[in-house]
Design goal:
single chain, 112 residues, alpha/beta, Transcription Regulator spoIIAA, 4 helices, 5 strands, globular
Length: 112
């Protein structure tokens, strides 16, 4: 299952390339609208490319999570190709990005 309850207030989402990426993000967006009291870690380890639709879903998730719900949205495990897209589009400046799941989870523990 791509969306896992890591703890009572943290969800870990294991993303994959499209079409699964879109399905996972749609499920996450539904979850965010219902459950406003969780932090989210998006693991990009299995994502080798992102397209404009994927970026739009990420921005919508950011808006719901950070601006509306006042919770954290952390990204991790981004490969070099996807990171290049983040740099070109400026996404690297608006998302908190970590090397791996462990680093992201540790950040949630240190900065609740």
């Amino acid at each position: 299952m791509p969306i896992q309850n890591w703890s009572d207030n943290v969800l870990l989402v294991e993303l994959a390339d499209d079409p699964q990426f879109t399905d996972d993000m749609n499920a996450l967006l539904e979850t965010l609208e219902k459950n406003k009291a969780t932090d989210i870690v998006l693991n990009f380890q299995n994502v080798s490319f992102v397209n404009s639709s994927n970026i739009a879903k990420l921005l919508k998730a950011r808006k719901l999570q950070i601006i509306s719900n006042h919770r954290k949205l952390l990204l991790c495990g981004i490969n070099t190709h996807v990171w290049g897209v983040f740099l070109v589009t400026g996404l690297d400046k608006i998302f908190d990005v970590f090397d791996d799941v462990a680093s992201a989870m540790l950040s949630l523990q240190i900065n609740p």
